[in-house]
């Protein structure tokens, strides 16, 4: 008994205490790895940003304690989901990136996007919004409706919090804002209105009237936006 108690205390100190549902089930086994609070949101940040420093991950997770983020990253690294590497040109500072196994969670998050879409309009009025979070829904909600036209780039937000959306030859891609890219349009505005716009629940003129700001060629957005729907609850648009 004393030995078992000592081992448990030692595991806590090391930060590798084993938690498991103890079930011979792939769902339970997956949740053993990524089922803890914040874990999938860490994966979200790394899917969006690629290789990120600790502080960059933390900025995308408002409310997480530093020690908890440290523990979650350590657990993900132990389980082969995240790799830690030296930051280029910054000795002693690591970056974190998803491994191939970690990137395979992209499909899981896509299904969560679909499942959670109907709940977004009922989010609390004080819910936090960061523009780069919108990049993942944009990948699936938007489409290149004029594939024969030259490629275009639309910037949502800023370098500090945003993403570049490219429409080219019928394909939509999203990336962190690139300094060597000149977007045809830049988009900013309140989160709920932008979500409604991308879901097809609000036409562009109404979104602009409700606070969305478009600089540059606003008509560029019509190439990628969905046709307006009757409701904000349009998870079926995630095709």
UniProtKB/TrEMBL annotation:
Keywords associated with the record: DNA-binding, Transcription, Transcription regulation
Pfam families on file: HxlR (PF01638)
Family annotation (Gene3D superfamilies): Winged helix-like DNA-binding domain superfamily/Winged helix DNA-binding domain
Annotated PROSITE patterns: HTH_HXLR
Acetylation recorded as keyword: no
Residue ranges annotated for the HTH hxlR-type domain, each copy included: 25-124
Identification of the protein by name: Winged helix-turn-helix transcriptional regulator
């Amino acid at each position: 008994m004393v030995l078992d108690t000592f081992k448990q205390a030692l595991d806590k100190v090391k930060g590798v205490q084993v938690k498991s549902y103890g079930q011979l089930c792939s769902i339970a086994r997956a949740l053993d790895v990524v089922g803890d609070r914040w874990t999938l949101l860490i994966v979200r940040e790394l899917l969006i940003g690629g290789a990120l420093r600790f502080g960059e991950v933390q900025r995308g997770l408002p409310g997480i304690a530093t020690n908890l983020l440290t523990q979650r990253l350590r657990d993900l690294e132990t389980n082969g989901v995240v790799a830690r590497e030296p930051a280029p040109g910054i000795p002693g500072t690591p970056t974190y990136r998803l491994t191939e196994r970690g990137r395979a969670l992209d499909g899981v998050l896509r299904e969560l996007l679909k499942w959670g879409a109907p709940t977004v309009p009922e989010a609390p009025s004080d819910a936090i919004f960061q523009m780069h979070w919108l990049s993942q829904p944009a990948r699936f909600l938007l489409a290149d409706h004029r594939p024969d036209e030259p490629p275009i780039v639309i910037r949502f937000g800023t370098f500090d919090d945003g993403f570049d959306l490219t429409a080219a030859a019928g394909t939509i891609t999203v990336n962190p804002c690139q300094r060597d890219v000149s977007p045809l349009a830049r988009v900013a505005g309140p989160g709920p209105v932008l979500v409604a716009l991308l879901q097809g629940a609000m036409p562009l003129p109404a979104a602009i009237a409700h606070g969305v700001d478009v600089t540059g060629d606003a008509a560029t957005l019509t190439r990628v936006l969905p046709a307006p729907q009757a409701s904000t609850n349009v998870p079926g648009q995630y095709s």
